[in-house]
Amino acid sequence: KATKIIAFAGSLRKDSFNAVLVKQAAEAALYAGSEVEVVNLADFDIPLFNEELESNTPEGVQQLKDKIRDADGLLVASPEYNGSISGVLKNALDWVSRTEPDQKPAFRDTTVALLSTSPGGLGGIRGLNHVRDIFVGMGSLVLSNQIVVGSSYQAFDQSGKLTDESMASRVEQLSQELVSTIQKLKD
Ligand code: FNR
Asked: Which spans are transmembrane here (predicted)?
């Protein structure tokens, strides 16, 4: 049975390093036999969360929510802002996490693989721990394995590929693990 993965970065920036990183992971997941859709949060019209807007869910929120509910797994690359998750990502997660009558919570039982990259030496590890806590709290199965890439300005070549081969192969392994974990859960 085909597995379906949605991949996205927690950044709206056109030249986002996290978008570049998640794209590489998405290609590896495709290679590992999964259906993969890379989405850009900037393409969804997601307002700042306000409970008052919930009586009429914004269309962009509904579109993202439907995609995530329909997927078996997620590849998420998050920037680290002030030692934590980006506001953009948290806002999107808060919207999508809201339950509707007779619908499964969108993140429950979703298998999630996490990545981050930042110009600093730690690559966003502090923020990624917060991202992990949030997904666990929403009922997702988050893989223990994760990818953290420091020195992002040096880490990627012109075509957006990781220059370090061992890091590139770790990204491949993470994506393979995501696909195989989803397959096992589906069997
Ligand atoms: C940052 N940046 C950053 N980097 C880091 O390693 N640790 C941090 O705590 C922060 N904090 C931080 C706060 C704010 C408000 C900004 C705008 C930036 C730098 C950040 O990692 C860098 O801009 C990345 O390139 C952002 O990710 P994208 O957009 O390239 O995916």
From this structure: none
